[in-house]
What we know:
The chain is mostly helical. The chain is built from seven helices and no strands.
Amino acid sequence: MSITPTVILFFILAAVAVAAAIAMLRSPNAVHAALFLVINFAAVAILYLLLNAPFIAMAQITVYAGAIMVLFLFVIMMLGAERLPLSERLPWQRPVALILSLILVAAFLFVALAPPPPGNPGQAAALPPVPRDFGGPLQIGSVLFSRYLFPFELTSVLLLVAMIGAVVLTREDRRQATDGRRQMAEDRPQTAELASVLRPPSSVVTKEQP
């Protein structure tokens, strides 16, 4: 494989996308995690441009990095869920994560170390020519709203369920915080009244001074 500017740009974008994904998972702040996800979406969109898929790249920017991430940030800021308390991990999470990670690594190694297709060694098989209008908005819209209409609607429902789940998970914490602030506001006048009763008169303090 010859080293071309396109190949160098691909590896740079791949490293940025992987680093942004890891930073999103490790970030304790929900707003920072959302911004790292925007960086990941932008890097993936440029990768789509390298693959001559401009429509998918623009959809990645306008839909995911634009509308959906703005909605997520709006929900996070509205609910005050920038920093959520760490909950206790379930006992089955770590083994399941380890098994899924091993499966992903095994699939990556299988694809990377697979023998080349039959033919000339070291030379990839010739791909059929791509039509001029391949991947255009008209062709993608026709296929998306006919053959893949059910998966498209299912994805929108999953996004709606995820947003409702975020609201439900943070509602109890906001209610407890509001109750705590209300209790502090109610106790403040009583504390001030008690302090005024216990404070000695100014005349007594003046007489005790030399």
